[in-house]
């Protein structure tokens, strides 16, 4: 079965970089995703990476994938107060998404 | 519409009552998914539709849960004889196809069973 794990909390100062880590277990995963959930809002797709890539950059977001260790990370450069949210790592195998419990990121001034 | 919509946004019900949750996927998306998110937890997969068929119902927690989809569009998730442990946010997502394609999520229905 699939099992996705992530740390529960991250506190970061405004302007610093945030790094959110995730580990997964299903080696057949084809895509890995990062979703953002703000209070009272639905899940917003932030970015995704195909399993044959090891890095993807999209503006302030950098995704690193270590397929050997089944480790995924999301780096947010120049973190802003609007980045405060819960970030979910998810892996897709077949058509199903398996999610981690989410990392609550708090940005302090 | 522009995105996935769900209704109602909030539902409070008494234990033992039946509830229906509705999802309107993005127009043209053939695949539709239901997930459940309990407080402080990640999402649990419930069921997947490709067109109007549900090839995978493995995530449905019990026979009190059922779902249908008509016209390759709207889907309804029904929970019969609700229990307090059914309290959660129920999220719907859709994608252009099944495998390998990005799922876009609705805002969810927050269900509270008293």
N-to-C CA distance of chain B: 33 Å
Helix content of chain A: under 10%
Distance between the ends of chain A: 41 Å
Rg of chain A, nearest Å: 13 Å
The biggest beta sheet of chain B is recorded as: 7 strands, mixed
Give the averaged pLDDT of chain A, no decimals: 90
Structural class of chain A: mainly beta
What is the string of SSEs of chain A from the N terminus onward? Answer: EEEEEEEEEEE
- Spans of chain A of at least 5 consecutive residues whose pLDDT stays below 50 are none
Uncertain ranges of chain B: none
Helix content of chain B: under 10%
Number of helices of chain B: 0
* Largest interface chains and counts: A-B, 23 and 23 residues
- Beta-strand residue percentage of chain A: over 45%
Structure characterization notes:
The complex is a heterodimer of chains A (109) and B (114). In chain A, 0% of the residues lie in helices and 60% in strands. Chain A has 109 residues and is an all-beta fold. In chain A, strand 4 and strand 5 form a beta hairpin. Chain A is built from no helices and eleven strands. Chain B is mostly beta strands and 114 residues long. Chain B is 0% helix and 50% strand. In chain B, the strands form two sheets. In chain B, strands 2, 4, 5, 6, 9, 10 and 11 form a seven-stranded mixed β-sheet that branches. Chain A binds chain B through residues 4, 30-31, 33, 35, 41-45, 48, 88, 90, 92, 94-102, and chain B through 4, 31, 33, 35, 40-43, 45, 48, 56, 91, 93, 98-100, 102-108.
